[in-house]
Amino acid sequence: MSLCINPNCPRPDHPGNSEANDCQACGTTLVLEGRYRVMRLLSSQTGFGIVYEAYERNLPKLLKVLRQEHTEIPKVLAMFRQEAEALSHLNHPGVPFMTQDGYFTVMPPGQTVPLHCIVMEKIDGVNLAQWMKQQGNHPIHEQQAVKWLTQLVEILQQIHQNNYFHRDIKPENVMIRTSGQLALVDFGAARAVTQTYLTQMSRGGVATAISSAGYTPPEQEQGQAVPQSDFYSLGRTLIYLLTAKAPTDTHLYDSLHNRFDWRPYAPQISAGLADLLDSMIAPRVVDRPATAQDVLTRLQQLSQPGVSQAKSSQQVSSVRPSKSGSGTTLGPSFGSNSGPSLGPQPSETTLPFGSNTSPADQQTALQLGITTPSWQTLPQTATFGRRRRWPWMVAALAGIVVGGGAIALHQRSISPPPIPSVLAAKVPVQLQRTLPDHSGSINDLLLFSDGVRMVSAGADKTIRLWDLTAGKSVQTWEGQTSFVNTVLLSPDDTHLYSGNADGALQSWAVASGTQRWQQSKAHNGPINTVGRTPDGQQLVSGGADGDIHIWEAGTGKWQRSLVTDQGSVNSLVVTSDGKYIISGGSDRTIKIWHIATGELKKTLTGHESFVNTLAISPDGRFLFSASADGTIRKWQIKTGEPLHTLSGHTSYVNDMIFSRDGRTLSTGSADKTVRIWNVETGNAEQVLTGFGMLIDHVVVSPSEQIVTASRTTPAIKIWQREQ
């Protein structure tokens, strides 16, 4: 169905609109800006606007249309334009993406007042208020709170650095993507911070007041919001998550005495975190953190050795559920008295900062007795795993560590040697074929060892098997309960494993298409990545909950867990001897774990944003890591030494794959290119161009066909280099 947005249209859902360019009832254009076709009404009860789902080809978009009667109200129209201006300047995965031309007007036939429109990225997921309801309104734990607070503060840091502030942070305006990462939405109240505005506020000026009961700070109620007003609203939002009570709840707020007492209802958190939240919600602006970096610094300090973790109210004990064969039984938790600890030992105290840390911060660390451990040697190995394919996730603060005894960042100021400047040849590609059978975005691609068959995982809750020679789907696995995020094959290609956005882990027989087993709650959140040991006997899964779980591949029986403190685990690989798991996380680190004991062997640092994917060279000598910072880093596995930084991509590096001879590495990026790198030298040999799409997934067949897919479209495309 195609909908007309003209509010005066007598039949906006006219049956003849489906394939037409103009409304068959009133003549208003149906293809807005020649690009967007409106397909579905989402809400007509959202303040000043009407919200639709529109499509640019096969890509879903969110379309906001200002109610026509509000266009004559200058303040309302200004706020609508403010949202467009703010989003068009904020290029950050934690806010909806909008192009510079995402704001436009449509003039219906015979009318003199245009319709004002904003089109932006449509974020799949639920908001925090909806999520809390789905979870039974249970308070979150401190680890989750720190993880989410870090993500949101980093988003605010980007917003404030671009001279904007949000002014309406509340649970309804924070979305949880299907990846488990947070995004801040609804910038209709956003305000540009100018010197004129700040001077006006300092002199008692008044701006348009935006109010959400319980979340709006006192100065904003008076029309005098400042950037620090966002910290107040964010603090109140976190308190809601930690107490499962709205700020206006009578248990928390005593209106008679104007007293807000929330700590007794969050006994599970430390005094340090409670103190931070209290400072964020201080009635006076001057008593709150001055900048987002101040909040991030205090979050980092919470995890440093020697910082008190006393509970905010009364000391409570928490039991972490373990996994069992049924997914329901509580077992011994690592770190408890019932089993060996999977975290580092107290002697493994490490530097909580990376290579860009200031001398003052380094001196502070030295005063706290934080030192760098010596490197441990690992055997030369190869890789067995699948990587995370969610490049838009928000990075957690580097060095944030949650819980006692966890390790922070190891290496200090070790820069890889520069790569000689070699001009890579630009090679255009030609589209050979499009595989359009998925009805939702593609979340993973995986080539069989025969180089002919390929499997894809989709947001349409299906897994498809393709014959690349024939260019068609030959088998479909249906019945998934949620988006399929990642897939993995057994060593002999006879069994398929999948990880879903709802935390389910499944095993399938490739020949028959039947399900072998399922763990419906393998993770407390989306599964991002799945790996296996080389013998195929064990699976490892990593999720947005920050955990790694180890499973018996044949039965799906849980064996053990590792708590990574990496924020979200985005990628996993297992070494060829089956002894080590290597994980890449949203905290920008790479960690190497002993698979049998859970001991953390090394932490590799250097990336400036979250690690998207990992791969080990076929000869087992080198680890490659690709990041949202646009770089690929090459590490020597045996020593942990950083060897090269492969630079050239101008946006997220989302995927990579080795050639069969191991000589080259192909990387796909959101900059719409694929680069071919010499593994030994680190030089780019070719830059493949002409894709015209964000590249989230890439595979290269033995016949040199390049297969790409993007999270923004359900189509899989097959390309060939131009000769």
Core attributes:
single chain, 723 residues, alpha+beta, Phosphorylase Kinase, domain 1, Transferase(Phosphotransferase), domain 1, Methylamine Dehydrogenase, Chain H, 3 domains, 8-stranded mixed β-sheet, 6-stranded antiparallel β-sheet, 9 helices, 42 strands, globular
Notes on the structure:
The chain has 723 residues and is an alpha+beta fold. The protein folds into three domains: 15-121, 2-Layer Sandwich (Phosphorylase Kinase, domain 1); 125-302, Transferase(Phosphotransferase), domain 1 (Orthogonal Bundle); 383-422 and 440-664, YVTN repeat-like/Quinoprotein amine dehydrogenase (Methylamine Dehydrogenase, Chain H), CATH 2.130.10. The chain contains nine helices and 42 strands. The strands form ten sheets. An eight-stranded mixed sheet has the order 36-37-38-39-15-42-41-40, with no helix packed on it. Strands 1-2-3-4-6-5 form a six-stranded antiparallel sheet, with helices on one face. The chain is globular, with a radius of gyration of 26 Å.
